[in-house]
Write a structure and sequence with these properties.
heterodimer; A: 169 residues; mainly alpha; Rna Polymerase Sigma Factor, Chain: A; Arc Repressor Mutant, subunit A; B: mainly alpha; 10 helices; elongated
């Protein structure tokens, strides 16, 4: 390091080379998931270089370099905590318009019920999803209440048989 | 491999670093801040008109010694904290020595004073403005200290901010001493210390944000 501070390129390069090996080992065990240890190695090497004036020649070089490595690790953790948490929530709001969940579920439901008779489909949708009572659905379709119940029950049973595995009988 | 390229680039032509670069940067930051603070104090409050006579009294110098010594000890502490892994250790005790001496002096003064004089000795005539003025006069020094530290490599940011603030407050108080005509040691021990402490608290609170470097 003293040679590096004096401006000698070759011994300084050797030092950085050896240091990169130490740092790789240091970060291999400590880098949090999702953070590239090699990025931290490089960041620390850059910091070692740009802040080399703060090395005190009367102190051990490795202690100084590891203090920078530790600072970089903490800094990275703090930054990823700050930057990941807030935008993640915001991103959900950005990319998923309101009501999208319901629309997607509706589309899936249409697909699932495609094979049922049209009236059974409407009855299931109205009584089970839109929240009509059996009586209201019966009036709407000019059916008796018990006929509505039977139709819904049969429709659900048919769906169960197709998608619910062994539970349909 | 990328890291090898990086090492190649970094070590290609390392500019030599002169010894003492850390101390020079800290002195430059504090010095520039102190000059600004002095100009601010002169323009805003003015130097006390009886400065010449005051400088013949012991209490003027006690006040000056307390603030300046505290500032110098904190400058040394700041230099320690500007290096990676730097900590205060036992040096923290030294920082409190001038304050302890002043408090002892103030205690003796209060004990010897007539009971009805004790409140005036502590409150003086300007206790309501003194800490605030010291706080404001300390701000340019704090800015200089923060500038200096950001170019170095502190790793204990809150402690470093606290020390930078205390240092700025102490030099700000030393500068304010050329305006303020309070002479009682109990007054200085309370209100000067409070003003210095306020800048220290600001530095400590903001340290982890202001002193972060990449």
């Amino acid at each position: 390091m003293l040679a590096g501070l004096a401006g000698e390129a070759a011994p300084y390069r050797k030092l950085l080379d050896e240091l990169s090996g130490l740092l790789r080992a240091y970060y291999a065990r400590r880098a949090p998931p999702g953070i590239d240890a090699e990025d931290l190695v490089q960041e620390t090497l850059i910091a070692v270089h740009t802040r080399r004036a703060t090395y005190d020649a009367s102190q051990p070089f490795t202690a100084w370099a590891y203090a920078i490595a530790r600072y970089k690790l903490i800094d990275q953790l703090r930054r990823s905590r700050l930057h990941l948490r807030a935008p993640e929530e915001a991103a959900d709001a950005l990319f998923v318009p309101p009501g999208a969940d319901a629309a997607m579920a509706g589309r899936d439901l249409d697909k699932v019920m495609a094979d049922l008779p049209a009236r059974t489909r409407d009855l299931i949708r109205e009584t089970r999803i839109e929240g009509l009572s059996t009586r209201e659905a019966a009036q709407k379709h000019d059916m008796s209440e018990s006929a509505v119940k039977v139709a819904v029950h049969r429709g659900l049973k048919a769906l169960g048989a197709r998608f619910g595995g062994s539970r349909g009988d | 491999m990328e890291t090898d390229d990086l090492i190649q680039t970094l070590s290609a032509r390392p500019a030599p670093i002169a010894p003492g670069a850390v101390a020079r940067r800290i002195l430059a930051g504090l010095g520039l801040g102190a000059v600004t603070s002095t100009l601010l104090m002169i323009a805003w409050l003015g130097v006390r008109p009886d400065l010449r006579e005051a400088m013949a009294t012991g209490m003027f110098w006690v006040k000056f010694a307390y603030t300046l010594l505290t500032g110098l000890f904190l400058t040394a502490a700041l230099t320690r904290l500007s290096r990676p892994g730097g900590k205060l250790g036992a040096f923290a005790v030294a920082i409190g020595v001038p304050l302890a001496a002043l408090v002892a002096m103030a205690a003796v003064r209060l004990m010897r004073a007539d009971p009805e004089m004790r409140m005036p000795l502590m409150m003086g005539a300007t206790s309501d403005v003194c800490p605030w003025r010291i706080f404001i006069i300390g701000l340019p020094v704090l800015a200089g200290a923060v500038w200096a530290m950001r170019g170095l490599a502190p790793t204990r940011l809150t402690v470093a901010g606290l020390v930078a603030g205390g240092c700025a407050g102490a030099f700000g108080a030393a500068i304010y001493g050329f305006h303020c005509d309070e002479t009682a040691s109990p007054f200085v021990a309370i209100w000067y210390t409070l003003g210095m402490g306020a800048v220290a608290v600001l530095g400590g609170v903001a340290g982890s944000r202001w002193l972060r470097w990449r």
